[in-house]
Design goal:
The protein is mainly beta. It has three helices and eleven strands. It has helices at 25-42, 47-51, 172-180; strands at residues 6-11, 55-66, 75-82, 90-98, 101-114, 119-121, 150-156, 191-196, 205-212, 216-223, 226-234. Strand 9 (205-212) and strand 10 (216-223) form a beta hairpin. The longest helix is centred in the N-terminal third of the chain and has 18 residues, at 25-42. The radius of gyration is 17 Å and the shape is globular.
């Protein structure tokens, strides 16, 4: 029996699917982010617990494998568990099921940020690690950013893209991908990984760079000279 796991059921709403009634890539991340937050709250290390100590959780990496695409899903069940921390990284995985069948695997890497000191922090947990094995082969290593991509669009962060951490929520970067580079629903995404390099805030202006290759799409968001996010999608 695995320890320190957490399960939750989610109802899929109309805004969570695309025109083909497939779960949007951003919706996969939305489910994963929500269950991670709910589990942290249960462990007394959630937003309301941390903010009293001037700390917040910050997601730095998402790696997703699409095991099976299910059309027009109504209910999904998610299971999450933390893995062994690595210095300042606190990895966690989320498994998403439809009708008891595993359809999406998500590997998250979180860090803890001290908003008062304006730097990454470490934290001593009593109850963070689970004995659940990782569902991914090897570590989800950081992607090397391709800075040679072509400018394809500009974007101003709107009010609806920001969350209670006062920055653009990580799920919406996948919406930027779908709006700017993904143009063919006949192409089936097998996996994707996104690096969150720096935060961006309400009304920030981003430059969106991208390239669509046969088996891989790459998207880079920049604010001035700073790289904000980098994404690779595989087919």
């Amino acid at each position: 029996m695995y320890t320190n796991t957490f399960e939750e059921t989610f109802r899929i709403t109309t805004n969570m699917v695309d025109e083909e009634d497939n779960l949007k890539l951003s919706s996969i991340l939305d489910i994963a982010q929500n269950i991670a937050g709910d589990h942290a709250t249960e462990l007394k290390i959630g937003f309301s617990d941390f903010i009293k100590q001037d700390l917040i959780w910050v997601l730095v990496r998402n790696k997703v494998e699409i095991v099976k695409e299910v059309n027009d899903p109504k209910i999904v069940k998610a299971l999450t568990y933390p893995l062994t921390p690595r210095f300042i990284e606190y990895p966690r995985e989320v498994l998403i099921y439809i009708n008891e069948e595993l359809v999406y695997k998500v590997h998250q890497v979180w860090c803890i940020y001290n908003i008062k000191d304006n730097k990454v922090a470490t934290y001593k947990f009593d109850n963070y690690v689970s004995n659940h094995p990782s569902m991914f082969e090897g570590r989800a290593k950081k992607l090397l950013t391709n800075n040679d991509l072509k400018l394809i669009n500009t974007f101003k962060v709107p009010y609806t893209y920001c969350d209670h951490n006062k920055h653009m929520n990580n799920t919406h970067y996948l919406d930027l991908y779908l709006d700017n580079l993904f143009v063919n629903n006949k192409i089936k995404v097998k996996s994707f990984q996104i690096e969150y390099l720096k935060q961006c805030y309400l009304f920030d202006n981003l430059e969106i760079y991208g390239e669509a290759k046969e088996n891989c799409h790459q998207l880079l968001g920049k604010k001035g000279l700073d790289n904000i996010f980098y994404l690779e999608v595989y087919f």
